[in-house]
Structures
1.
Amino acid sequence: MPLVAIVMGSKSDTESMQPAAEVLAKLGVDYEVLVMSAHRMPEKVRQFGQAARDRGIEVIIAAAGGAAHLPGVLASWTTVPVIGVPLASSELKGVDALYSIVQMPAGIPVACVAIGSAGAKNAAYLAAEILGLKHDEIRRAYEKYRSDLQGASQ
Ligand code: RP5
């Protein structure tokens, strides 16, 4: 049963979010990948958001470019933590998406990571840190990753 949902605003975001899927797979975290647009498929976003917790989803990674309202809209429908990934798919190369995610008005939080590939990876690592509070196996896999990093830089 997936613990993490990687949700993206368009099929065209798939390649940008591949690093998040790879990190989760490496850490042994079950995930699902879904495409739904906040502005083109608002009803699908509502249904997914409202059902996410009951389906066992514990963290949502939501990625979008442009106005990037997907993370905020999803967060409005659920109390499952949402990590937003701004994507550089627009003329503004992700600065628009970054602002729209990081500048959520007070009251409905959305975590925000870096634009693009670094953000996709860090969203998955952050998801593992959150899941590690409850799932010992994931915490151990994540701690091993962190400890391997120290060896890699010597
Ligand atoms: C956003 O608009 C998506 O997240 C994507 O990054 C961008 C372009 O989407 P498409 O026009 O390629 O479907 O909603």
2.
Amino acid sequence: MTKSEALYERAVKCIPGGVNSPVRAFGSVGETPRFIEKANGAWIYDADGNAYLDFIGSWGPMILGHNHPEVLESVMEAVKGGLSFGAATEREVLMAELICDMVPSIGMVRMVNSGTEAVMSAIRTARGFTGRNKIVKFTGCYHGHTDAMLVKAGSGVMTQGIPDSAGVPAGCTQDTLSAAYNNLSSVEVLFEENKNEIAAVIVEPVAANMGVVPPAKGFLEGLRKLCTREGALLIFDEVITGFRLAPDGAQGYFGIQPDLTTFGKIIGGGMPVGAYGGSKEIMSMVAPVGPVYQAGTLSGNPVAMAAGLAQLTMLKENPRIYQELNAMGDWFYSEIETILREAGAPWQVNHTGSLGCVFFTEQPVVDYASAKTSDVGKYRDYFKYMLHHGIYLAPSQFEAMFLSAAHKKEELEEMLDVLRGYMHR
Ligand code: KE4
């Protein structure tokens, strides 16, 4: 029995599914989850000492690679002063000033502890600001596990959202409407059917939770125009894309200004951090200034701020990281496609910058319906082969690959060699 197997055997006895987040259970790929002991740069090491080239990076936070010395040093420095005070600290001011400086649409920002909390709070703020209740989301986009966002795929178009989880009362999703990603007319219909009732449209500017699905040309611009015309707020959920695609996130990368933005992952440098922000007018709705209540014991935690500040500051001071990372992604994902085509495989490769994924389907993947045509059995086979050859990919077809500034070209070439081996096995 490996140490991971032994740990998993113990874990399932005291943690639901043996994990603290479902995707980590490797449920859809039929492998024992690897219990990771340490990480460095682009590599992670499991309890049995196996090394893996890491294409998850903690699901996005580790854009500079694991254990970046400047992040560690900043954390160690903060720890010496204490872990948490439940009081205002200078680091929170520095973090808010930095985010407002890097992202032009953000005039004010509130720190929270997860992407879920950021989305939950942004939705409440949008409802408070507009006095409206309904929220439009896109089937296949994931915005954390706040009740209102857990609606059945495809439900809600002109009807009330149907809960997609036990324990979510119908009342929590009745105001959530679902549209189809990259399909502006599906949003138009909802605005026609719910005149003056839609508080906000929330969207992943690059969908990365149904696999990676980039926005079609004109999609984000169309959402901007629709929301402006209808008096609804446009919320960009940049928990994944924020500070990944550009110093000012997907909104900078695509040149579209949302009304509210949610962040997570990268802004925490690996520590539990989320944030939501927007114009001063909108954010002045938030307590204690305004009537929208939101709070958090560990929000703006000094140690978490130290990690996030170190990472964000490096990103801000070295914007070349983005050109290099995006160019590496363009090269890497096109190499993957070449290997597939040379092997006569019709699989699809989608990417935007350093975010990408392989869909095991023959049709272009532009939304949830087309993503779901993927053969998850083929994905499982691919995942297992790559894992056993030291390549750590998302244990689900409907997730993303994340490159980091720590990935060296020769290491990516290694992965491409393993992929060639898989395609010619
Ligand atoms: P958290 O609450 O997990 O910090 O963030 C929720 C969230 C919000 N918005 C987007 C666009 C997200 O991708 C996420 C969380 N992403 C997943 C990865 N697909 C986290 C991994 C997990 O659930 O364990």
